[in-house]
Design goal:
The chain is mainly α and 193 residues long. It is built from ten helices and no strands.
Length: 193
């Protein structure tokens, strides 16, 4: 635990107090622990199963505690599924949206596949970072923009469509950090297979 606190302190110092990678570290740490607990070659399905079997109860108990983090407090305020709740449920957005989206995109250019996966996640995730920064209205705007992007053909429209959405996100101070963390985890799982 002391190592984790020291690492987080160094991260916050390096980023000027912004928890830039806290969600990714939390998610990837649980996934790595689950992969390491396997006595066989890890697959996404086995990692998911192990996560729920070995740590599901502890994660469910953790999710019941009030959060001291800005994203967790925003999730509570707006009745959203927090990162802790996602973990307790076995990261459904990761395993039911992100991983299948990446698998479906196999054979396409990596940037295109990952861009469509990111937007697929943004379209459905209760991203508490978005809710923290800009309230429920900001979260719903981001979800709607992602849904519209995908409905219009996703990355097949060209990267300019995504760049236009990114510019609007910057203008509105929207940062889909939870979606980015989920994409990183999906990419890691995809590399295992």
């Amino acid at each position: 635990e002391r190592c984790g606190i020291e690492a987080e302190t160094r991260m916050l110092t390096a980023t000027g107090g912004i928890n830039t990678h806290r969600g990714a570290i939390f998610m990837l740490g649980l996934l790595c622990a689950s992969a390491g607990a396997l006595g066989q070659r890890p697959t996404a399905a086995l990692i998911h199963q192990t996560l729920l079997q070995r740590w599901g109860e502890a994660l469910a108990a953790r999710a019941q505690r009030p959060s001291a983090l800005p994203g967790g407090r925003a999730a509570e305020r707006f009745n959203l599924r927090s990162a802790s709740t996602e973990a307790a449920m076995g990261f459904p957005t990761l395993f039911e949206t992100a991983v299948p989206a990446l698998q479906k995109a196999r054979g396409r250019p990596v940037q295109t596949a990952r861009l469509d996966t990111l937007f697929a996640v943004m379209a459905v995730l209760d991203d508490s970072n978005l809710a923290h920064r800009c309230g429920l209205e900001g979260l719903r705007f981001a979800q709607s923009a992602a849904q519209d992007f995908l409905a219009a053909g996703g990355a097949s429209q060209g990267v300019e469509a995504a760049e236009a959405i990114a510019a609007e996100f910057v203008r509105r101070n929207l940062s889909p950090g939870g979606a980015a963390d989920t994409l990183a985890a999906a990419c890691w799982l995809d590399r295992l297979s």
